[in-house]
Amino acid sequence: MAELPEKVLEEGAKKWEPALVGFFVGKKIPFWSLHSALNKKWSDAGKFSIHIAENGIFVFKCESVEVRNWILDNGPWDVWGVHLALRLWERDLPPISSGFSKITVWVKLMNIPMEYWKTKGLNHLASILGTPLYMDQATEAKQMISFTRICVEVNADRHFQDVIKSKRRSGDMEVKVE
């Protein structure tokens, strides 16, 4: 059994700390198209490289944690209209060949009843889709209340809802999901 010294493992993990792992939901995108599109979209953030793993999975190695966070904070991202699901690279991640059991996605919720415009209320709505992780800055500040953007961890094999039914005293209401 191969067992690397902890120091070597730490050095290897440090190299990949600012990386993201991702795949396209429902369709494969050719590497050169991906490379060209993301260079245009992410050029303001800083430098990154794209590494091809198996089964349509990519590793995006960023030059810094700040670049990685910019990419996450300014998503969701798509190429040719196909959603790019991204998650943080983490140490002890299984070999990247079998896909994801969970993915993080930014969701946009619209037609939200005013009573839900508290962190608990918005998280409750998002929890119908999966596990809420964080909200964008405009949502946290409650500056724009026509919609909200929340990053949610969802099961990769679960059907994605386009509506969340909300019960109110005056009757049921539908919150739209994009």
CATH superfamily of the largest domain: RRM (RNA recognition motif) domain
**Helix content class:** 25-40%
Radius of gyration, in angstroms, nearest whole number = 18 Å
Which descriptor suits the 3D outline? elongated
The main sheet comes to: 5 strands, antiparallel
- Termini distance? 47 Å
Q: What's the number of helices?
A: 5
Report the strand count.
10
CATH fold field value of the largest domain: Alpha-Beta Plaits
Organism: Cephalotus follicularis
Protein name: DUF4283 domain-containing protein
InterPro entries: At4g02000-like, DUF4283
Give a verbal description of the structure.
The structure is a single chain. The protein is an alpha+beta fold and 178 residues long. The protein folds into 2 domains: 6-88, Alpha-Beta Plaits (2-Layer Sandwich), CATH 3.30.70.330; 102-177. Helices cover 26% and strands 33% of the residues. The chain contains 5 helices and 10 strands. It has helices at residues 6-16, 31-42, 65-73, 119-127, 137-141, and strands at 19-24, 48-52, 57-62, 77-79, 82-88, 102-110, 131-135, 147-155, 163-166, 173-177. It has a 5-stranded antiparallel beta sheet. The longest helix has 12 residues, at 31-42. The protein is elongated, with a radius of gyration of 18 Å. The N and C termini lie far apart (47 Å).
